[in-house]
Amino acid sequence: MPASPSYRVRALSVLALFSVGAGSLAGCSSSPSGSTGDASAKPEAATITIAASTLGDPGRGPALQKLIDEYNASQDLVKVEPASVPYPTFGQTILTQMGGGEGPDLVRFDMPEFEAAASSGLLEPLENKIDAKKLNLIPGPDKYLTVDGHRYGVVFEDSNYGMYFNKDLVPTAPTTFDEFLKAAKDATKGDAFGLAFRQTQAEEAGVWQDIFNYVLGFGGNWSDGTKLTINSPKVVEGLKAYQQLYDANVIPKGADAATFRKMFTDGKIGMELNNGGYVSHVASTNPNLNFSVARIPFPVKKQGALLAPIVTNVNSKHKDADLDFINWLLQPAQQVKLQEVLGASSVATPTERSAASLQKFPFLPALDELTDTGVPQIVEGFGQYTPDIRHVVVTEVLAALQGQQDMNAAMEKAQKQAEDLVGK
Amino acid sequence: MTERNRGPHVLVRSPGPAAGTVAGRRDGLNGRRRRSVTGSPWTPYFFLAPAALYLVVFQLVPLLQEVWLSFTRTTLLNPTFSAWVGTANFQSIFANPAFRQTLLTTLVYVLACVVGSVGLGLGVALLLNGRFPGRPVARSLVTIPWAAPGIAVALIAVWMFNPQYGILTRLLRAVGIDPGASGVLDNPQLALGAILVTTIWQLVPFVAVVLLSALQAVPQELVEAAQVDGAGRWTIFRVVTWQVLKPTIGLVAVLMTIWSLRRFELIWLMTRGGPIGSTRTLVIDLYAQAFESKQLGTAAAIGMVGIVISLIVIVGSQLVARAAAKEA
Asked: Is the pTM of this model over 0.80?
């Protein structure tokens, strides 16, 4: 008996569904990088976009673009193009685009935006696609890229904070906080200042980055992973050290980062705590500056790190191509090149510095050694709330600097406000 | 038939409804209903449609969406999902002492902007209305601050208030006002003042130019008659000039109020609402909630507060204007 038309339609539908399902499964399994770093599988031909604030950096942008061009030339299927996003609003712009179902395929995020995007389901989980052991990813920073049990990225750049010092103003690197304070005072004379850091509300994010080093360096942290510890004695101790330097009049008060960084490259600032990315900037702005970098001389060997993962946008239509680029970038040869591009920053895997780099910047190993003790500038366990907690903490710290309250009271208030924010 | 050959009755009705307005045309035709130029009663609607469509699409729809958002919990990271929370956003912002401080700061900022810009603008307009050598050049120069882009103005102001080498900081110190080592913009007592000075400096030319044009409408025969009657300058200003300027000043004051309520770039670039929230106005708070805290619902609630304040100002000014007209 011939099949009735409705039966035929149903049978065809089942067949079509099966085909689609099988196709999807096949698509998953044949994902080139789904094989944990196996670069042999081929992605579908596609043009994908990458957004990275590094691309807009006059010092490092062109070199990164060159590396991307190298990937494009290495195969015919995938073409990576830069997405132009203005730096000052980079995170906001990308998050807004992603929230609206759009955005670049690949993004180099800073940690607060990474946490926000990951906890909102805007990033593609990569735990089944990246094999950390096989790729030899450095575990210290890598552990921060797992949110709620899912890996959402791999390290693109890990920039440790160190103490930059002008050897003409500070001949010997201080090794204790007292020496640090004394060196700052000694170097403050005429139009030169011993130290510089951010201390205005207009640079809230920068102040947060700066005070992070003081808090960590004195043994504190904003949380223990499950509970906020903003008012803990160690946090207050670190912030009091920050305030002590502010009150010592050894910094150009009111000067923003752009100004005091220009002053540093002009030889008018003795010391500055900054991340590894700053090396390229200083060296390119004033090649004759007699400077070096050492470990921040605070009691505890722990400091902030500007950790920046590369992630895949969950809205990307070419996830296999995205993964292919990520896997290519994680190969040892590319990691060495990426590290050269990024200057003094570390990358996802252990790499050897070139002889030329070491000769030019002999202090690089000192910065690299800090990778395991670097802490990304988020509130651990409360990553998505970091911008709000940052606002609360920075506002209260600045009120203390202005003499409106003491640091203990400031952090008590910040603790309460932050607890209200996170609902704990 | 053109407007002109409809007869002089229409054209001499000034200062009543203008000749070209519907009221003017109706009066001019002694109440007779005029046929449209093209003969179709739909023609006016046809010409109004683009503007009406624009208003609906770009004003009304976003406004309604904002109203709806303000009653929901919506985040920037997932704007397609909203949970209805009733008035919770409004309750939470009004329960927050920082928001009450923001409202107060906004009130102070707006009032100072309006009083400062209208007061100084009126002074400049009166000066420019007088006769003196180089008046055309002065009239051109005075518009420069208004023509300067807001971002450039903010960046230059930051530079001028720089605690180390800013010329305004040095000037303050020279007259005995010490803003402290961290400078004016980082001093909670002085930061709002610095922003106000910058804002008013930028607004004054606009007010001055508008009032200067209004001053041209002051009937000289009335001024001369008052002079003949022995009236002094102040009396002439109060009895003649002020009466002519009043409607324009009212309009300018409303404009200044609304513009000041929504001014963002100058404050954001100069202080980002700091130090310690001393320059945090409604718009800065709205931006911070939407793009830093990523809470679109709360940001929309703050926006609604701003809209309500604007409406109060507009309706209030209309009522005052109507009462004044009745009195006259």
From this structure: no
